[in-house]
Amino acid sequence: MKVTIALACLFYASYHDMKTRLIPRWIWWLMGIPALIFYGIEAYGSNPELLIMLLPLSGILIEALVEREELSNVRVTWPFFLIYLASFAGFVWGYITMKNETLFLGALSATGVSIFFFVLYYSNIIHGAADAKALVMLSLLFYGYPNLAIISHQALPEAFTMLFPFSLSVLLFASVMVAVLPLYFTAVNIKRGDVKFPEMLFGYRMNIRDARKRKLWPMVRIEDGKPRRVLLPSKYMETDWGALESAGIRNVWVTPKIPFIVPITIGFILTVLLGNPMTYLFPVSF
């Protein structure tokens, strides 16, 4: 059921990400609420005291559903202060009473890796809020690896699966797919005979009139009337195509706004089918 819910939501989100780069907020509710329900069912069936961990997990879900573009936008109002306080209290009580419970460790791992994804987003390493939210929802849904791998491999120690949880494996697969893009851009540019380093590693040259109709970032911006190279545009950067045209630029190097939900979706499928990639990279150490 978890895999089915995640796949349906990620496919729908991928469609919207490719089409508009905007994803409906309700899609994250469809992943987050069932995640808490599933945890509650498992906790109640294992040890009802584990239900206390619903507090920090709920806190993570609420934080993920809040719309913030920058860390400076965080305002700890009384409602949020009480949510954070309850989350911290639930974590402390769970650690004191159930620190050896597998389900507690799973919830702890989900909380920790979700905070890590928040940090990546606010640090501009993960560009899209939707990308970070998708990874957080996967953390809440899968605090362990589903036993659906199609290839038999060595089981990882429980401690390692907590330190390298399911959603982190998804991010690793997705990041590897994006990391090969420079090879693709390089091949395309060499074939075109359009060689300029390092721009050729991150995108391609295009007529500015065509570029402004597409979901692209220019790798140059006008500052103080002069063009300035920008190889890795920030999500906060405004694109002023008019300023580039006024500066006499007709063909501009551009880099695509990658719909990262698509690699995340593919990474999710690979993680479900193949398990933790660490078992293939370092099989001897386990």
Order of helices and strands: HHHHHHHHHHEHEEEHEHH
Structural category is mainly alpha
Q: Which stretches are low in confidence, meaning pLDDT under 50 for 5 or more residues running?
A: none
Give the neighbour order of strands across the main sheet: 1-5-2
DSSP E strands, number: 5
**Helix count, per DSSP?**
14
Shape: elongated
Spatial separation of the terminal alpha carbons: 30 Å
Strand content: 5-15%
The value of Rg in angstroms is 22 Å
Largest sheet: 3 strands, antiparallel
* Overall helicity: 55-70%
Summed over residues and divided by their number, the pLDDT gives a mean of: 81
Descriptive account of the structure:
The chain is mainly α and 286 residues long. The protein has a domain of 159 residues. Helices cover 59% and strands 7% of the residues. The chain is built from 14 helices and five strands. The strands form two sheets. A three-stranded antiparallel β-sheet has the order 1-5-2. α2 packs parallel to α6. It starts with a helix and ends in a 5-residue tail after the last helix. The model has no long low-confidence stretch (mean pLDDT 81).
